[in-house]
Amino acid sequence: MSNKTIIFCDFDGTITVNDNIVAIMKHFQPPGWDQLVEQVLSKSISIREGVGKMFALLPTSRKQEVVDYAINNVVIRPGFKELLDYCKQQGIEFYVTSGGIDFFVYPVLSSFSIPTDHIYCNGSDFSGSHIEILWPHACDDQCHNDCGMCKTAIIRKYSPDEYHRILIGDSVTDFEGAKLVDTVFARSILIDLCRDLGLNYYAFQDFHDIIKQLEELKGK
């Protein structure tokens, strides 16, 4: 890999073991949340619409409960700190590109050495009667998937002529980005997509697997 290497890493279900948005919904059980998850996964509604509607089911009077639950129930996938250390040693740029929400993404990542301007996620507003999700990184004019937090718009800022672009992810929020990059590290349903489309991918269980594979790719 002669170009500079840059990694775009998903948060929910990738850096964390569980999908935190789904975990929050399962815990608080607002009526109708499960149909919304199904509709997002089947692509009958967009990610932005689904996530926005899910959180709009939760009253802001429960803010502290929601925030505490989201932060305290996160489990980090093994090897994450080691991957960050490896990237630092190798001069690899590392960005978190998360469809998650600021009130749990930033606190969970605060114990790792990731600059805040290298973390992209959705915002939140607790000033009304119900939680409102904000979309500071919505799709640009080249993406029409209504992603909410548009990973492809971020990836396109880094030219493939200058960068070897790597995506690490697991789910529906990573599909479009996976089609753009040079190399994908995939878990869960993202593996099926990469296989179906013939993308250049490696399956992984934890971040130690990714470090090993990056070491192998280094010599190529």
Describe it.
GO terms for molecular function: 2-hydroxy-3-keto-5-methylthiopentenyl-1-phosphate phosphatase activity. It is an enzyme of class 3 (hydrolase). Dephosphorylates 2-hydroxy-3-keto-5-methylthiopentenyl-1-phosphate (HK-MTPenyl-1-P) yielding 1,2-dihydroxy-3-keto-5-methylthiopentene (DHK-MTPene). The structure is a single chain. The chain is of the alpha/beta class and 220 residues long. The chain is 43% helix and 18% strand. The protein contains 11 helices and 7 strands. The chain has helices at 11-15, 20-28, 33-41, 47-56, 63-72, 80-90, 102-109, 151-155, 175-180, 188-197, 207-218, and strands at residues 4-9, 93-101, 119-125, 132-134, 163-169, 183-186, 201-203. The protein has a 7-stranded mixed sheet, sandwiched between helices. Helix 3 packs antiparallel against helix 4 (47-56) and helix 6 (80-90) packs parallel to helix 11 (207-218). The relative contact order is 0.18. The mean pLDDT is 95.
Query: What is the first-to-last residue Cα distance?
Result: 6 Å
Rg from C-alpha positions?
17 Å
Secondary-structure element pattern, one letter each: EHHHHHHEHEEHEHEHEH
* Helix coverage percent: 40-55%
> Please, how many helices?
11
- Bin the strand percentage: 15-25%
Mean pLDDT: 95
Low-confidence segments, given as residue ranges, are none
| Spatial strand sequence of the major β-sheet | 4-3-2-1-5-6-7
- Morphology call: globular
* Structural category: alpha/beta
Total strand segments: 7
Strand count, sense and barrel status of the largest sheet are: 7 strands, mixed
